[in-house]
User: Fold this.
Amino acid sequence: MGANTFGTIFRVTTFGESHGPALGAVLDGVPPRLPLTTEDIQKDLDRRKPGGSPVSTPRKEEDRVEILSGVFEGFTTGTPLALLIRNRDARPEAYDELKDLFRPSHADRTYLEKYGIRDHRGGGRASGRETAARVAAGAVAKKFLSLRGISLRGYTLEAGGIRCASFDERVIDDNPLYAPDSRAAEKMLKTIGRLAEEGDSAGGIVECRITGCPAGLGEPVFDKLDADLAKAMLSIGSVKGVEFGSGFACALMRGSGHNDKMNASGYLSNNAGGILGGISTGQDILFRIAVKPTPSIRLPQATVDTSGSEREISIQGRHDACICPRIVPVVEAMAALVLADHLLRSAASISLDQTE
Assistant:
């Protein structure tokens, strides 16, 4: 299996499966003398870890990170940074009855068709648990960005068909949905709870706002900043769409209304979402992702087994009723990895007249 490495200069390779002994990440290209402790990484892992909310899987994982290399006396050394997260509550036997069944909307069948072998224990590498390694790596990138005045904030904008009507950043961490609207969060929880009782699940929309990003990040053709961010988001399991700024709504607008006009003070609007021509404008970068409903549901579904025979499946076990809140820190992590990489790429491509 290839393509487990992400980035050009700030690079991360992840490894591990849902019910294996551990997951982890190896980062290369992390600048030296970056102050870093396990606490810097743990706070984001705690936001993503299972069992933290009524809509989350009851699987209990501490997700304690171990730094195996690349840090000395509290600072990165510039050598490969290895991070490890051990699985403590894996129950692979719970998936024995699914060994020969393909779960609808999972990667079971495609993995088998591609590789001729698959890890049926919770989806193996295709499990959402894989994202723990991404969050650990992204926390390092976020620390690097924070020292340059760049911050990222993800939140659930919509879940179970209920959309936030207001935005108050202060309440995001006060509800299990990470929603910026307390009243909407309560309605989301009730709807998702009802669906869970029925054996069903809910999808939603996660939005991310990046502030403090300087103008000039991104390459103008194939490595556009928005293209790399979109790839990062679509690499997350369950993400089915990405939009920037006004997004798909721009299809209903006129150029006179969509164009971000300017005056001496700067841009007068931000329909572009902070990126023009693949290059950051210096405004806030704003994008949204569409998250599909959790595919593991108890309701009976039609499927086939590995021999091609038609079967019926009802998925039991420990699963999230809505993935949105646990995807929020993953979105921040992947966006941070993209920005850290482009910052380093930008520094490496400064022209001679810019250094004078």
